[in-house]
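Reply to dn_fold:

You asked what the input looked like. This is it:
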Amino acid sequence: MGLLWALVALLFLIATWAMLGRSDRWWIPALAGVVLSQVLIVLHWQDARIGTLANILLLVVIALVAVVHRFRQTYHQDALEVLQVAMARSAHILEQEDLVSLPAPVQRFLRKGGHVGRPVPRSLNMEFTGDIRSKHGPWMPFRTEQFNTFDPPARLFWMNATMKALPTKGYHRLRDGHASMRIKVLGLLPVIETHGPELDTAELVTWFNDLCLFAPARLADPTTTWHPVDDRSAMAMVEHNGIRISATLLFDDQDRLVDFVRDDRYYLGPDGRSERRRFHTPVSGRSEAGGLGFPADGEVLFVLDDGPFTYIRLHTEAVAYDVVE
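and this is what came back:
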């Protein structure tokens, strides 16, 4: 019997260790510990019945965490499914001849960035830290995980944030040409749930923005249409599921991509209405993964009537390509 109580203690220690390690599965050993603990309490009811109250409290917490876990599992299941489709595509090496039809600044960007002679990514995993705000609102810290594929386009974005001192979970999803966004306080209470044609377009713009900054070898895809602007910029157009979007890429004097501009991306204002606004994602700093460079820091901003409004600040924590999990 003493060994069984020791096992209960061990299960709770494992759950604590998993929780401190930010594992979403800490509730599994915790639940096993509660069940075993309650069985032992029933066997020794006269001496241990007060422990039932603690177990009830733990069960309430575990039930809430299980709901959050189910929300997060939606992200993981979507990622697994789109990954299987993307990785079934044949791998391709970016060659010099793939660059011939591209505008001059894009060609220089890809050559100097070391992308020629390397595999063209089929999927992209990223992690970011940063903060986000609404107009006139405070900055809210967050940490994100993101998974993108390119053929067909998919963008899955999971966010852990803090809103008014409360942990908040968010899932942005672009898949099969349609987008949705769900934000839940404590991972339980919906505060934003939206979808529709405007979000489909906005998320396709963001997907293409990710491609340009973190998987630029895909800029040579024949599905992208180019219009030269000048020696330091070029306009690109992509179309998916009947949605056509365009953006202008800006390069510095070292042929690095430093900004992505879209003139009419949808902006969700404080009143809940969407309107078309000029959209920028200026980047700075350099990090490296697998011998390829990518931006270390960036912002997402809209140009509003009273001037530029930065609503997201990002720091890149990790980037990986074609990770099979």
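DSSP finds six helices and 14 strands in the chain.
Hope that clears it up.
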